[in-house]
Design goal:
The structure is a homodimer. With about 325 residues, the first copy, chain A, is of the alpha/beta class. Chain A has helices at about 5-15, 20-30, 35-45, 65-75, 100-105, 125-140, 155-160, 175-185, 205-225, 245-260, 270-290, 295-310, 315-330, and strands at about 50-55, 80-85, 115-120, 145-150, 165-170, 190-195, 235. In chain A, helix 4 (about 65-75) packs across helix 10. Chains A and B meet through helix 3, helix 6, helix 7, helix 8 and helix 11 of A and helix 3, helix 6, helix 7, helix 8 and helix 11 of B.
Chain lengths: ~325, ~325
């Protein structure tokens, strides 16, 4: 069976509702196999309708509890929902940070809920690309609402969150000073901020503080003449464990999805940013792969060894390798 | 003044001990200006002697306190020391997480200590490259020991830590379960693990636990036939605030630097990994820049818009843009 035939078979089965085929297809996409690539090529044209919601925040903020509650809420109206948990933890420990499986257990037997962990280690710059590719497959298989859950403490994770149509930043009410500073960076990508553990004392005060920070941030943006934000993100309170605030958050997400549908042809900024992140990642991967071709690999290793030995500077090395590829393309 | 003349002037002044020229030069490197690039080209050949030490760990683990103590210890033997604090927090809040300036104040008036923050936001995949370039400039200016301090919670930050010659993972004794999981991912890049706050009860037990985890990890590596680790990282205890354990940690770092000097021609794995990370980042940047050239930019935007509208799949888009560049290189 060729890669293309395998892609066709897996894609057809996955679209027909075969969850094991879908899981296998996502593994091929994540591993960048030829079949995975062929499947995304095949499915991409039908992947435009889903609402991609990034959910991020510091460890312990309550992301998994909130996502599990939102999944439950969305299922009440019969929608099919997928969760991609982008997990920066070790393959050795098996990834305990995100997509806390205990909280997701309630959805494990529901065929219209699909949950998938993606490991971020070892992918270099390609994490955003792999996540978008996986989301396209899920969208083409009919999932209407796709949550992309990441730990919002590193650059890559913030990038992954910001390629969603809508980005939700989750914040627990009681956090130390250091976490506050991370949070401020995250707030810049937020469309919606959710203060979790809303039944605890101090949650209302934390929400008020966040609203204050966002006002200062908006003034700062204007003062510096930065690109204007369409509007300040809303700050909502939730208690995922007892469900308070969850219907309101889903309603806010749905309003954003509806607004996005109306303005689709005018300003698809998130879709364009997503396309750019994905294509940039693929360009990097393709260049790296071509340099590893037998015709170039010896020269590549020689060049890197010269840089490592400080005999050649890295800029000249990059230019030489690009010239090598251009010469290869000519021949 | 041309970029090259400016690079020559700044590089000469920086190498002569002018700290303001050095600071300006590092800004040019971080901003990827032509002068910054020319300066790195010029200085790179003399940048091989420094020992690059990555220091990473979760927020609050005590990285800054430890680095400040190690700087003080290294100064006792007269060595010149630089600190690059790679800071993932927001430009709006000014970056409060790393390189805690209060703890570094004691070194502020010492001309043989140079401290520099690097913002990681907005650099995409280029953070590792920018950090290595800055470290080369510092090495060429005669700094013998260069600490690269990052928050070890995201993919990029782990990458930055792992391009150092030696990577120190810092761990506080009392940490919640979620942080434990992050730590396990970090342990894979560790050459040395330091348990901080060593004067607290529980620090010894935490160190023993870590040693246990590392033994299990080493067994796991062997069982899977993964590339062998040269040896398990040592686990040391420190109290940065009162200085306990700090001379032992510096001695362990110096032993690693000496071993590296002896085996330099045999297996410069860290240097090769660093060269690869830096050149890969530069390749990506150069491709992105070429695509923004006036002759290609319209086509680039058109292609991205087609991907955003789901009319073109991202793999075909990447192939088309690479073909465009190859055709441009031919003409």
């Amino acid at each position: 069976m060729t890669a293309d035939q395998r892609a066709e078979a897996l894609a057809a089965a996955a679209r027909g509702g075969d969850r094991r085929a879908l899981a296998r297809l996502l593994s091929e996409v994540e591993d960048r196999t030829a079949a995975g690539e062929a499947a995304v090529r095949r499915l991409y044209g039908e992947a435009g309708a889903a609402h991609l919601v990034g959910v991020t925040g510091a460890p312990g903020a309550g992301k998994s509890t909130l996502v599990a509650a939102l999944v439950g809420e969305a299922r009440k109206s019969g929608r099919s929902v997928a969760v991609l948990a982008v997990d920066p933890s070790s393959p050795i420990t098996g990834g305990a940070i995100l997509g806390d499986r205990v909280r997701m257990q309630q959805h494990a037997s529901d065929p219209d809920v699909f949950i998938r962990s993606m490991a971020s280690r070892g992918h270099g710059g390609g994490l955003a690309g792999a996540t978008i590719a996986a989301a396209s497959v899920l969208a083409a298989c009919g999932f209407e609402l796709i949550f992309i859950e990441t730990v919002g403490t590193g650059q890559s994770e913030v990038e992954v969150a910001s390629i969603a149509d809508t980005t939700v930043v989750v914040q627990a009410p009681e956090m130390g000073d250091e976490v506050q500073a991370i949070k401020a960076g995250l707030l810049e990508v937020a469309d919606l901020v959710v203060v979790t553990k809303g039944d605890r004392p101090g949650a209302e005060r934390a929400a008020a503080q966040l609203r204050g920070m966002l006002t200062v941030g908006a003034q700062h943006d204007r003062a510096l003449g930065d690109r204007p934000r369409p509007k300040r993100p809303d700050v909502l309170l939730a208690s995922g464990a007892i469900g308070t605030g969850v219907p309101e958050i889903l309603a806010a997400l749905d309003r954003r999805a509806a607004a996005r549908g109306e303005h689709r042809d005018r300003s698809p900024a998130a879709a364009l940013a997503r396309a750019e992140a994905q294509v940039a990642g693929l360009l990097g991967e393709r260049i790296a792969r071509r340099l590893r071709d037998p015709q170039h690999d010896a020269r590549r290793l020689e060049t890197l060894a010269a840089v490592a030995a400080h005999e050649l500077d890295p800029y000249t090395a990059a230019d030489e390798l690009l010239a090598l590829l251009a010469a290869g393309a000519k021949g």
